[in-house]
Amino acid sequence: ASILILNGPNLNLLGTRQPEVYGATTLQDIEDMCEAHGRALGVGIVCKQSNHEGELIDAIHDAKGDHDGIVLNAGAYTHTSVALMDAISSVALPVIELHLSNIHAREEFRHKSFIAPVAIGQICGFGATGYRLAIEAMVDHIR
Ligand code: DQA
């Protein structure tokens, strides 16, 4: 089995971006941790990041056939993108919505998620640990 870890806008800046909100862990650290966790669980992990909505949509389309599920941190597009929601609906692949921060404890505009209705579930508030939790949940879901 193979899981795509897809990170959206501004997540390339993790480590220096508002560390009080998102922690000191870099995206590279998170991707290394995901790959190590995948190896431990016997599942393939591929990591991608883009700041561009259309590239994230292409990555979701292209995941079909190559991967069995997607862990998606869509960043701010979570709260705005009908197009990402439609892309998920258009590929029959399980998606887990992930956020480092607890979006429900933050500004009102972060409470709305276009991803949640088309995801199998949401993990938020656990920082980088959330990626590990999401990989475990996806492996259980796939198997
Ligand atoms: C985020 C939460 C979003 O509201 C925000 O726009 C991000 C990061 C998170 O991981 O906590 O870019 O998805």
TrEMBL record:
It comes from Cognatishimia activa. Homododecamer. PROSITE patterns: DEHYDROQUINASE_II. Its EC number is 4.2.1.10. CDD domains: DHQase_II. One of its GO terms (molecular function) is 3-dehydroquinate dehydratase activity. HAMAP family: AroQ (MF_00169). It comes from the Bacteria. PANTHER family: CATABOLIC 3-DEHYDROQUINASE. Substrate binds at N73, H79, D86, L100, S101, R110. This is 3-dehydroquinate dehydratase. Pfam families: DHquinase_II. The gene is yqhS.
